Amino acid sequence: MGIIKVKPTINSRRSVSYSDFAEITKTTPEKRLIIAKRRKGGRNNQGKITVRHKGGGAKRAIRIVDYKRDKYEVPGKVAAIEYDPNRGARLALIFYTDGEKRYIIAPVELNVGATIVSSKEQIEILPGNAMPVKFIPAGVMIYNIELQPGQGGKIARGAGTGVRVMGVEGKFAQIKMPSGEIRLIKKECLCSIGQVSNPDKSNVSLGNAGRSRHLGIRPTVRGTAMNPNDHPHGGGEGNQPIGLRYPKTKWGKHALGVKTRRTKKASTKLIVQRRKKKSR
Asked: Of 157, 107, 163, 168, which Cα lies nearest the Cα of 135?
Protein backbone atom coordinates (compact mmCIF):
# COMPACT_ATOMS: atom_id res chain seq x y z
CA MET A 1 0.00 0.00 0.00
CA GLY A 2 1.65 3.15 -1.23
CA ILE A 3 1.03 6.39 -3.06
CA ILE A 4 2.02 7.02 -6.69
CA LYS A 5 2.52 10.60 -7.88
CA VAL A 6 2.14 11.05 -11.61
CA LYS A 7 4.39 13.00 -13.95
CA PRO A 8 2.92 16.56 -14.36
CA THR A 9 2.59 16.44 -18.14
CA ILE A 10 -0.26 18.98 -17.88
CA ASN A 11 -1.30 21.38 -15.12
CA SER A 12 -4.36 19.39 -14.08
CA ARG A 13 -2.13 16.38 -13.23
CA ARG A 14 0.33 18.35 -11.13
CA SER A 15 -1.26 17.38 -7.81
CA VAL A 16 -2.78 14.04 -8.84
CA SER A 17 -1.85 10.94 -6.83
CA TYR A 18 -3.06 7.35 -6.90
CA SER A 19 -2.94 4.29 -4.69
CA ASP A 20 -0.49 1.70 -6.03
CA PHE A 21 -3.02 -1.15 -5.45
CA ALA A 22 -0.09 -3.41 -4.60
CA GLU A 23 -2.19 -5.52 -2.22
CA ILE A 24 -4.90 -6.32 -4.83
CA THR A 25 -4.69 -9.96 -5.98
CA LYS A 26 -7.99 -10.35 -7.91
CA THR A 27 -9.56 -7.86 -10.31
CA THR A 28 -13.02 -9.32 -11.00
CA PRO A 29 -15.58 -9.70 -8.17
CA GLU A 30 -17.26 -12.95 -7.18
CA LYS A 31 -20.48 -13.10 -9.25
CA ARG A 32 -22.63 -14.59 -6.51
CA LEU A 33 -21.60 -11.88 -4.04
CA ILE A 34 -22.61 -8.80 -6.06
CA ILE A 35 -25.91 -7.05 -6.75
CA ALA A 36 -26.79 -4.22 -9.12
CA LYS A 37 -26.58 -0.69 -7.75
CA ARG A 38 -29.54 1.53 -8.55
CA ARG A 39 -28.54 5.17 -8.93
CA LYS A 40 -30.82 7.98 -7.76
CA GLY A 41 -28.62 11.02 -8.41
CA GLY A 42 -29.62 12.55 -5.07
CA ARG A 43 -33.30 12.65 -6.08
CA ASN A 44 -36.40 11.45 -4.23
CA ASN A 45 -39.46 9.63 -5.62
CA GLN A 46 -40.76 12.91 -7.06
CA GLY A 47 -37.59 13.55 -9.01
CA LYS A 48 -36.59 16.50 -6.81
CA ILE A 49 -32.97 16.90 -5.69
CA THR A 50 -32.80 16.27 -1.95
CA VAL A 51 -29.01 15.71 -1.78
CA ARG A 52 -26.98 18.13 -3.85
CA HIS A 53 -23.72 17.46 -5.68
CA LYS A 54 -24.51 13.83 -6.55
CA GLY A 55 -24.89 12.26 -9.99
CA GLY A 56 -23.09 10.48 -12.79
CA GLY A 57 -19.96 8.53 -12.08
CA ALA A 58 -18.60 5.20 -13.22
CA LYS A 59 -20.89 2.19 -13.22
CA ARG A 60 -20.39 -0.06 -10.22
CA ALA A 61 -21.88 -3.09 -8.48
CA ILE A 62 -22.52 -3.52 -4.76
CA ARG A 63 -20.46 -6.20 -3.02
CA ILE A 64 -22.36 -8.12 -0.33
CA VAL A 65 -20.14 -7.76 2.73
CA ASP A 66 -20.45 -9.89 5.87
CA TYR A 67 -20.59 -7.38 8.74
CA LYS A 68 -22.10 -9.82 11.25
CA ARG A 69 -19.32 -12.44 11.08
CA ASP A 70 -21.87 -14.98 12.34
CA LYS A 71 -20.25 -18.07 10.83
CA TYR A 72 -18.92 -19.29 14.17
CA GLU A 73 -16.18 -21.87 14.66
CA VAL A 74 -15.83 -22.45 10.88
CA PRO A 75 -12.30 -21.65 9.64
CA GLY A 76 -12.00 -19.67 6.45
CA LYS A 77 -9.08 -19.18 4.09
CA VAL A 78 -8.29 -15.83 2.48
CA ALA A 79 -8.56 -16.51 -1.25
CA ALA A 80 -8.03 -12.95 -2.53
CA ILE A 81 -7.77 -9.28 -1.59
CA GLU A 82 -10.06 -7.20 -3.83
CA TYR A 83 -10.79 -3.57 -4.65
CA ASP A 84 -14.26 -2.25 -3.81
CA PRO A 85 -15.40 0.89 -5.68
CA ASN A 86 -17.99 1.64 -2.97
CA ARG A 87 -15.50 2.10 -0.10
CA GLY A 88 -11.91 3.02 0.62
CA ALA A 89 -11.08 -0.24 2.40
CA ARG A 90 -10.13 -3.45 0.63
CA LEU A 91 -12.25 -6.60 0.77
CA ALA A 92 -11.03 -10.09 1.56
CA LEU A 93 -12.71 -12.99 -0.22
CA ILE A 94 -13.03 -15.88 2.25
CA PHE A 95 -13.45 -19.54 1.30
CA TYR A 96 -14.88 -21.43 4.29
CA THR A 97 -14.26 -25.12 4.85
CA ASP A 98 -17.96 -25.92 4.33
CA GLY A 99 -17.83 -24.45 0.80
CA GLU A 100 -19.43 -21.05 1.45
CA LYS A 101 -17.81 -17.84 0.17
CA ARG A 102 -18.10 -14.42 1.83
CA TYR A 103 -16.58 -10.97 1.65
CA ILE A 104 -15.25 -9.29 4.80
CA ILE A 105 -13.53 -5.94 5.29
CA ALA A 106 -9.83 -6.72 5.11
CA PRO A 107 -7.55 -5.52 7.92
CA VAL A 108 -3.94 -4.46 7.56
CA GLU A 109 -1.49 -7.39 7.37
CA LEU A 110 -4.12 -9.92 6.26
CA ASN A 111 -2.56 -11.82 3.37
CA VAL A 112 -3.76 -14.39 0.87
CA GLY A 113 -3.54 -17.89 2.32
CA ALA A 114 -4.13 -16.82 5.92
CA THR A 115 -6.81 -18.57 7.98
CA ILE A 116 -9.39 -16.61 9.95
CA VAL A 117 -12.17 -17.67 12.29
CA SER A 118 -15.12 -16.10 14.11
CA SER A 119 -16.14 -17.27 17.56
CA LYS A 120 -18.19 -16.36 20.61
CA GLU A 121 -15.39 -17.72 22.78
CA GLN A 122 -11.81 -16.54 23.26
CA ILE A 123 -9.55 -17.29 20.29
CA GLU A 124 -6.12 -16.24 19.08
CA ILE A 125 -5.47 -12.51 18.59
CA LEU A 126 -4.77 -12.45 14.84
CA PRO A 127 -5.78 -9.92 12.12
CA GLY A 128 -9.22 -10.79 10.75
CA ASN A 129 -10.36 -13.01 13.63
CA ALA A 130 -13.65 -12.00 15.27
CA MET A 131 -14.81 -12.44 18.88
CA PRO A 132 -16.65 -10.52 21.64
CA VAL A 133 -14.93 -7.42 23.01
CA LYS A 134 -14.73 -8.91 26.52
CA PHE A 135 -11.96 -11.26 25.36
CA ILE A 136 -9.80 -8.51 23.80
CA PRO A 137 -6.81 -7.37 25.92
CA ALA A 138 -6.37 -3.67 26.61
CA GLY A 139 -4.40 -1.80 23.93
CA VAL A 140 -5.36 -4.08 21.03
CA MET A 141 -6.72 -2.42 17.86
CA ILE A 142 -10.15 -3.58 16.66
CA TYR A 143 -12.60 -2.65 13.87
CA ASN A 144 -16.10 -3.53 12.54
CA ILE A 145 -17.59 -3.27 16.04
CA GLU A 146 -21.21 -3.94 16.93
CA LEU A 147 -23.27 -1.46 18.96
CA GLN A 148 -25.74 -4.20 19.94
CA PRO A 149 -24.92 -7.93 20.08
CA GLY A 150 -25.94 -9.67 16.84
CA GLN A 151 -26.62 -6.39 15.03
CA GLY A 152 -23.56 -6.47 12.80
CA GLY A 153 -20.55 -4.15 12.74
CA LYS A 154 -21.36 -0.42 12.76
CA ILE A 155 -18.21 1.29 14.08
CA ALA A 156 -14.77 1.62 12.42
CA ARG A 157 -15.36 0.31 8.90
CA GLY A 158 -13.65 3.07 6.90
CA ALA A 159 -10.19 2.82 5.35
CA GLY A 160 -7.39 3.05 7.90
CA THR A 161 -9.65 3.36 10.94
CA GLY A 162 -9.21 1.42 14.13
CA VAL A 163 -10.52 1.53 17.69
CA ARG A 164 -8.39 0.79 20.73
CA VAL A 165 -9.72 -1.27 23.64
CA MET A 166 -9.19 0.55 26.97
CA GLY A 167 -10.50 -2.16 29.28
CA VAL A 168 -13.51 -4.22 30.39
CA GLU A 169 -15.45 -3.60 33.59
CA GLY A 170 -18.85 -4.91 34.60
CA LYS A 171 -21.28 -5.21 31.68
CA PHE A 172 -19.37 -2.82 29.42
CA ALA A 173 -16.09 -2.48 27.58
CA GLN A 174 -14.44 0.92 27.22
CA ILE A 175 -13.10 1.78 23.77
CA LYS A 176 -11.30 4.81 22.33
CA MET A 177 -12.57 5.98 18.94
CA PRO A 178 -10.33 7.43 16.18
CA SER A 179 -11.79 10.88 16.98
CA GLY A 180 -10.55 10.66 20.58
CA GLU A 181 -14.02 9.94 21.98
CA ILE A 182 -14.13 7.32 24.73
CA ARG A 183 -17.36 5.36 24.99
CA LEU A 184 -18.86 2.19 26.45
CA ILE A 185 -20.26 -0.76 24.51
CA LYS A 186 -21.71 -4.04 25.76
CA LYS A 187 -18.94 -6.55 26.29
CA GLU A 188 -20.84 -9.21 24.30
CA CYS A 189 -20.58 -7.13 21.10
CA LEU A 190 -18.58 -8.82 18.36
CA CYS A 191 -15.56 -7.13 16.79
CA SER A 192 -12.74 -7.97 14.39
CA ILE A 193 -9.05 -7.82 15.26
CA GLY A 194 -6.79 -5.30 13.52
CA GLN A 195 -6.93 -1.98 11.69
CA VAL A 196 -8.95 -1.48 8.50
CA SER A 197 -6.88 -1.83 5.34
CA ASN A 198 -5.69 0.95 2.98
CA PRO A 199 -4.62 3.52 5.62
CA ASP A 200 -2.97 5.62 2.86
CA LYS A 201 -6.33 6.57 1.37
CA SER A 202 -6.34 9.88 3.26
CA ASN A 203 -3.12 10.84 1.46
CA VAL A 204 -4.52 10.32 -2.05
CA SER A 205 -5.24 13.59 -3.89
CA LEU A 206 -7.90 13.57 -6.61
CA GLY A 207 -6.14 16.51 -8.21
CA ASN A 208 -8.64 17.35 -10.95
CA ALA A 209 -12.36 17.65 -11.57
CA GLY A 210 -12.58 14.59 -13.81
CA ARG A 211 -11.76 12.15 -11.00
CA SER A 212 -14.49 13.69 -8.84
CA ARG A 213 -17.00 13.16 -11.64
CA HIS A 214 -15.92 9.52 -11.95
CA LEU A 215 -16.76 9.11 -8.25
CA GLY A 216 -20.23 10.58 -8.77
CA ILE A 217 -19.41 13.95 -7.17
CA ARG A 218 -20.87 16.92 -9.04
CA PRO A 219 -19.48 20.48 -8.78
CA THR A 220 -20.09 22.59 -5.66
CA VAL A 221 -20.73 26.29 -6.31
CA ARG A 222 -19.81 28.86 -3.62
CA GLY A 223 -22.68 30.84 -2.15
CA THR A 224 -20.84 34.15 -2.73
CA ALA A 225 -20.77 33.37 -6.46
CA MET A 226 -24.58 33.13 -6.61
CA ASN A 227 -27.33 35.70 -6.95
CA PRO A 228 -29.18 37.03 -3.87
CA ASN A 229 -32.30 35.01 -4.72
CA ASP A 230 -30.27 31.79 -4.81
CA HIS A 231 -28.22 32.08 -1.61
CA PRO A 232 -27.98 34.35 1.48
CA HIS A 233 -24.30 34.99 0.63
CA GLY A 234 -25.07 35.98 -2.96
CA GLY A 235 -25.06 39.36 -4.68
CA GLY A 236 -22.70 42.32 -4.64
CA GLU A 237 -20.30 43.75 -7.20
CA GLY A 238 -17.08 41.76 -7.52
CA ASN A 239 -15.66 40.04 -4.43
CA GLN A 240 -17.80 40.92 -1.42
CA PRO A 241 -17.92 39.60 2.16
CA ILE A 242 -21.08 37.75 3.07
CA GLY A 243 -22.38 40.76 5.03
CA LEU A 244 -23.93 38.61 7.77
CA ARG A 245 -23.21 37.98 11.44
CA TYR A 246 -22.58 34.29 10.72
CA PRO A 247 -22.35 32.07 7.62
CA LYS A 248 -25.65 30.59 6.48
CA THR A 249 -26.66 27.61 4.41
CA LYS A 250 -28.60 27.95 1.19
CA TRP A 251 -31.79 27.73 3.30
CA GLY A 252 -30.79 30.35 5.89
CA LYS A 253 -29.66 28.07 8.72
CA HIS A 254 -26.38 28.33 10.66
CA ALA A 255 -23.60 26.82 8.55
CA LEU A 256 -20.81 26.46 11.14
CA GLY A 257 -20.63 25.22 14.72
CA VAL A 258 -24.10 23.70 14.84
CA LYS A 259 -24.55 20.74 17.19
CA THR A 260 -26.35 18.00 15.27
CA ARG A 261 -26.53 15.37 18.00
CA ARG A 262 -29.92 15.00 19.71
CA THR A 263 -29.73 16.05 23.37
CA LYS A 264 -31.94 13.17 24.54
CA LYS A 265 -30.26 10.44 22.51
CA ALA A 266 -30.19 7.21 24.53
CA SER A 267 -26.53 6.42 23.86
CA THR A 268 -25.34 9.74 25.35
CA LYS A 269 -25.02 8.10 28.76
CA LEU A 270 -22.51 5.61 27.25
CA ILE A 271 -20.10 8.35 26.18
CA VAL A 272 -17.40 8.75 28.82
CA GLN A 273 -15.44 11.52 27.07
CA ARG A 274 -16.50 13.51 24.01
CA ARG A 275 -14.17 13.97 21.06
CA LYS A 276 -11.80 16.89 21.13
CA LYS A 277 -12.56 19.91 18.96
CA LYS A 278 -10.21 20.35 16.03
CA SER A 279 -8.31 23.62 15.96
CA ARG A 280 -8.87 25.60 12.78
From this structure: 168
